[in-house]
């Protein structure tokens, strides 16, 4: 075998163009697959880097009748589960997000979570500096991440004993987490709260919870026990816990669930690229074996066995696979960094810090190279082993093996079919994303600077003061050159804040004893919000500066809510009540506005209830200030920041644009579309290369035939038609096969589409019109060369 490898290496060096094309083809296939696998492995498959990773679960609430699950629990449900679930060794709840934190050197937004003292214990993590939280630390102790400590205090050790404030409460830093720990994602500050939830309302889903499975219990036994607890609570609380169940999910599954389908779909797409690359190289090897029939026949005539001939072809395949795989791995290393950086900035995938080229990725690259060697090496090896010495030597090596020609044609058909099916899938995703990007949002996102701001507050007076500060800020910012209008809101579309829940109208029983309450999104808005956002006021009036805390509560509803609760009636003047506040009051409806898509462009135009910011002060100290501009929004950040800090030095701020927020809300569809289109383009390129290679060999083989035809009077056009006719047959079979494959994979793609069906004729036609010219071009070049032969010269040398 060593001798065969040396001989194969010399043979490949004698044909550098063939070797280069084959190695690059393998490298593209292996490199793309390795890069994509590194992403899939790091995000989906790699175990979480916690000592207790395999036993950590997230607790969810499932609404059985609605077939809907949310990753939150009510305070009483947390208490009941903690008391009765013996399968769970520990339960910890938390809530929070990116909140404003005040430090000695200023205020900033940072991932901040209120956690029970046993939070780190659930993960099996101990502080790198200092100590863990205890029950005595509730409302007074904090743990921060090592990067946060280094950024603000110089080091982990120097951060111990330092103080930070959140919502007017001072917390002493008692511990520093080890480098790399950051749960929930983006968390840097963990503030201790009492194990007893502050909210004990059974319909307020304010908490997230993680738990540690007991050492002798599985996720199935835990869920069985949670089902028993849920059934008991349904009996004890038939209204609040009606049709409600609890579900434990392994934390890793919970984190990656939203992107699992997308990543596996993309892995499948790039695997198709690898198959096409293998078919391409197999075609090249078969064609090369055809031109080497005489060489193989001579080797057989002087004693080489069929096994030796096959071994020689396998040696060449192995060298190509190793060279292509090595180059592919180098491409993957560069691609992984680019892919991780791109997905981090644009797509927001979880666990990107775990994506790298490690032992598992190297193993995959090696396996992919070996598999490609087998896939493209078997056919040429088998063909070489079937060489007929007498026939081949008599023919002086001219002509193709019949079975080889048929196999190569079949491989081209397969390449065209796979690439066409992949192109259709990518085309559907492109059409879907274009529909998503062009959908009517119900508001204008252009030229809008968004300031996320937090003013600390603890008492009612603090919250009222914060509301007045933001009111003054809006008034001052409207005077800034370049700002045409301004408003403040909590619950901006695609933003972090907002709420939702049930509501009642005109004295209806709010507790829902007579049936489930109608549901709506809740948004708090200041005067000028609808004008600034470009939301149409259908009837009634906007909020004004007179809608204050001590005035008659009012509300504005969306058109969907009006149709849902007041069909055929004018809602203005009617009353409405929701559970946003701990002491809800009936509000008089004073206006109706157009529907908006609150969560993302993909969300429906659902019912929304708008309430004045100043009438709900406990939710009005952390909000968005919206600034409509006639200049580039980013050019105003310094001036806006200075104006707001002049009103309150404690205010924490971050800046973005509404266009960016909307774009971020459709990050996953964008990632699917971009990578699927990239893979489809690569597949079509490889399919074109395959068509070109086969048609080149077909044309070369038939040159004597063409010379005879032209000597007897055939024109160049007739010869061209003969070659293109064969290419057309292969392309037609491939396109039919590609359509069949695309239609059979509809279930995979269907859930990813928006505004387009899996059988969208426009997409199929567009892909067909785009692909056919490329395939024709790939076949036309060798066909044109065949028409340039000189019949006399060819016949003299035949």
Task: Give a structural overview.
This protein has 798 residues and is an alpha+beta fold. The chain folds into three domains: 2-43 and 261-437 and 668-797, no CATH class; 91-214, no CATH class; 457-649, no CATH class. Helices cover 51% and strands 18% of the residues. It contains 24 helices and 22 strands. Strands 1, 2, 3, 4, 5, 6, 7, 8, 9, 10 and 11 form an eleven-stranded mixed sheet that branches. A hairpin with a 2-residue loop joins strand 3 (88-103) and strand 4. Helix 2 (16-45) packs antiparallel against helix 8 (251-291) and helix 8 packs parallel to helix 11 (359-385). The chain is elongated and about 105 Å long. Residues 396-403 have low confidence and may be disordered.
Number of strands: 22
Low-confidence stretches: 396-403
**Bulk shape:** elongated
Helical residues, percent: 40-55%
Q: Describe the biggest sheet?
A: 11 strands, mixed
Taking the alpha carbons of the first and last residues, their distance comes to 38 Å
Average pLDDT taken over every residue: 85
The total of helices stands at 24
- Helix/sheet category: alpha+beta
Radius of gyration: 34 Å
The tally of domains stands at 3
Beta-strand content bin: 15-25%
């Amino acid at each position: 075998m060593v001798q065969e490898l040396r001989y194969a290496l010399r043979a490949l060096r004698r044909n550098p163009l063939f070797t280069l094309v084959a190695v690059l083809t393998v490298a593209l296939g292996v490199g793309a697959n390795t890069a994509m696998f590194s992403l899939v492995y790091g995000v989906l498959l790699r175990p979480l880097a916690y000592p207790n990773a395999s036993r950590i679960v997230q607790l969810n609430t499932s609404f059985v009748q609605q077939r809907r699950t949310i990753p939150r629990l009510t305070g009483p449900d947390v208490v009941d589960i903690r008391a009765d679930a013996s399968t769970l060794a520990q339960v910890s709840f938390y809530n929070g997000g990116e909140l404003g934190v005040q430090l000695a050197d200023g205020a900033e937004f940072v991932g901040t979570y209120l956690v029970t003292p046993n939070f780190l214990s659930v993960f099996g993590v101990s502080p790198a500096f200092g100590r863990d939280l205890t029950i005595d630390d509730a409302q007074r102790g904090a743990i921060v991440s090592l990067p946060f400590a280094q950024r603000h205090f110089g080091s982990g050790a120097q951060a111990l004993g330092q103080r930070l404030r959140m919502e007017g409460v001072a917390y002493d830093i008692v511990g520093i987490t080890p480098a790399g720990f950051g749960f929930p994602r983006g968390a840097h500050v963990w503030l201790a709260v009492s194990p007893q939830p502050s909210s004990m309302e059974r319909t307020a889903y304010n908490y997230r919870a993680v738990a540690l499975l007991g050492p002798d219990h599985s996720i199935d036994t835990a869920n069985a026990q949670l089902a028993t607890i849920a059934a008991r609570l349904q009996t004890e609380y038939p209204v609040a816990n009606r049709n409600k169940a609890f579900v434990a999910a392994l934390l890793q599954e919970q984190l990656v669930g939203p992107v699992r389908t997308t990543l596996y779909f993309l892995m499948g797409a790039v695997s198709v690229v690898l198959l096409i690359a293998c078919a391409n190289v197999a075609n090249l090897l078969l064609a090369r074996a055809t031109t080497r029939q005489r060489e193989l026949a001579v080797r057989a005539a002087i004693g080489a066995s069929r096994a030796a001939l096959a071994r020689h072809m396998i040696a060449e395949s192995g060298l190509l696979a190793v060279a292509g795989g090595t180059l592919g791995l180098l491409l993957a290393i560069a691609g992984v960094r680019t892919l991780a950086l791109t997905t981090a900035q644009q797509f927001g995938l979880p666990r990107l810090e775990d994506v790298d080229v490690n032992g598992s990725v190297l193993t995959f690259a090696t396996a992919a190279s070996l598999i490609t060697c087998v896939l493209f090496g078997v056919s040429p090896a088998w063909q070489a082993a079937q060489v007929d010495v007498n026939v081949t030597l008599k023919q002086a090596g001219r002509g193709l093996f019949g079975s080889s020609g048929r196999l190569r044609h079949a491989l081209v058909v397969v390449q065209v079919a796979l690439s066409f099916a992949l192109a259709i899938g990518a085309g559907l995703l492109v059409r879907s994303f274009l529909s998503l990007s062009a959908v009517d949002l119900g508001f204008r996102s252009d030229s809008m600077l968004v300031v996320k701001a937090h003013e600390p507050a603890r008492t009612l007076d603090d919250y009222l003061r914060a509301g007045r500060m933001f009111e003054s800020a809006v008034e001052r910012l409207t005077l800034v050159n370049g700002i045409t209008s301004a408003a403040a809101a909590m619950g901006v579309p695609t933003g972090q804040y907002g709420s939702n829940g049930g509501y009642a109208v005109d004295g209806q029983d709010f507790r829902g004893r007579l049936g489930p309450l109608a549901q709506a999104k809740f948004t708090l808005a200041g005067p000028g919000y609808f004008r600034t956002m470009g939301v149409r006021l259908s009837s009634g009036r906007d909020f004004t500066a007179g809608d204050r805390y001590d005035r008659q509560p009012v509300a504005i509803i969306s058109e969907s809510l009006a149709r849902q609760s007041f069909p055929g009636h004018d809602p203005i003047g009617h009353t409405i009540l929701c559970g946003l506040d701990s002491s809800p009051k009936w509000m008089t409806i004073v206006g109706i506005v157009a529907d908006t898509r609150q969560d993302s462009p993909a969300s429906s135009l659902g019912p929304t209830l708008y309430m004045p910011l100043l009438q709900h002060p406990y939710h009005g100290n952390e909000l968005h200030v919206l600034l409509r501009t006639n200049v580039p929004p980013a050019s105003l950040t310094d001036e806006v920041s200075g104006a707001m800090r002049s009103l309150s030095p404690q205010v924490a701020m971050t800046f973005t644009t509404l266009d960016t927020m909307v774009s971020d809300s459709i990050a996953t569809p964008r990632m699917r579309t971009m990578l699927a289109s990239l893979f489809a383009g690569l597949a079509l390129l490889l399919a074109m290369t395959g068509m070109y290679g086969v048609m080149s060999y077909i044309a070369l083989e038939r040159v004597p035939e063409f010379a005879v035809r032209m000597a007897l009077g055939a024109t160049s056009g007739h010869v061209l038609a003969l070659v293109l006719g064969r290419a057309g047959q292969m392309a037609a079979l491939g396109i039919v096969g590609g359509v069949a494959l695309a239609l059979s994979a509809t279930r995979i793609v269907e859930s990813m589409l928006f505004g387009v069906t899996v059988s969208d004729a426009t997409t199929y036609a567009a892909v067909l019109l785009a692909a056919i010219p490329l395939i024709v071009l790939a076949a036309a070049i060798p066909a044109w060369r065949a028409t340039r032969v000189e019949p006399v010269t060819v016949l003299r040398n035949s």
